[in-house]
Amino acid sequence: MAAIGRSGILVVILVFSTLFLQNGHHDSMLEGVPTGKTRVVDLSYAINHKLVPWPGDEKFFEAKVNATIEKNGYFTRSFWMLEHYGTHMDAPAHFPPGKTTVDQIPVKQLFGAAVVIDVRAESIKDADYQLPAARIEDFEKKYGRIPEGAIVLLRTGWASRWPDVQKYRNQDAKGKMHFPGFSVEAAKALILRKVSGLGCDTLSIDYGASEDFAVHHVSLGAGLYHLENLADMSELPEAGASLIVAPIKLEGGSGGAVRVFALLP
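Above: the chain sequence. Below: its structure as C-alpha cells.
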C-alpha cells in the first residue's frame, strides 16, 4: 500500500476541500494532510500489463511510446486498456437495470465515510464466503448506524494474493473462481441505508463462483457504484476514515480506472 506525495495531496485539497467544509470532521482531516497529522493511504494499484485480468480477457492493457526526450525533447505515451482492469469502478450502467455511466455519477457520491467490514478470518476458512446482512447489524451495534453516503468496503485479505493470477483468481479444475464477496441480502440492507458505493479487495463485488452476478444487478440497479481490486486495506480502521474516489471521467463509460484515497484519523 502506497502513500501519495505531498504535492499530489495539496492538489486534491485545493480542488475538493469545499465539498467537506460542511462537515467539521472531514475538514479537520484535510487540514491535517500537509502536516502529516492525517495519513493518506492509496488503495489503487499502478496500471501496467502485469495486473490480474478477468478470465477470458486476452487483451487488457497496452502502452506505446509516442515521443522520447532524446528524439523529441519531451516524453509522452499513448495507452489502451479495458474499462474493468486493475483497480477500477463499476458504474451503474455496467449491469442492468443500472443506467448511469461513469461520467454521470454525482460528484457528492465520490466522497464519504469509509465503512470497513473485516471478514479476513471468514475468508481464510471459506473462499466462497458471502457477507450476510447480520454482519452489517453487528457493525452498527459497535459503531452506530452506517451513515448515508458512506462507502462500504469488504476487507477479505485477498490483496495479499495480488498480483499472482492463480492465487488471486483461485480457479478450480473447471475454471470456476473462488473468492469472497457481498451477499444480495447485505447489498439490499446497504441500499436501504443509502450508501454511495461498495468496494472490495477482490476481482468482483459478487463472490467468485457467482454465475448470475446478482449483487451487481441489485446494487448497480439502485444507483450504487463498485470499487473492485482495491489494494491492501489492512491499515484502515473499521470506522473513522474517509474516502476520496477519483474515477476517470470517461464519457459513456461502463466504468474505468479509479484512484481511491483513504484519509486516516
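The two ends are 17 Å apart (CA to CA).
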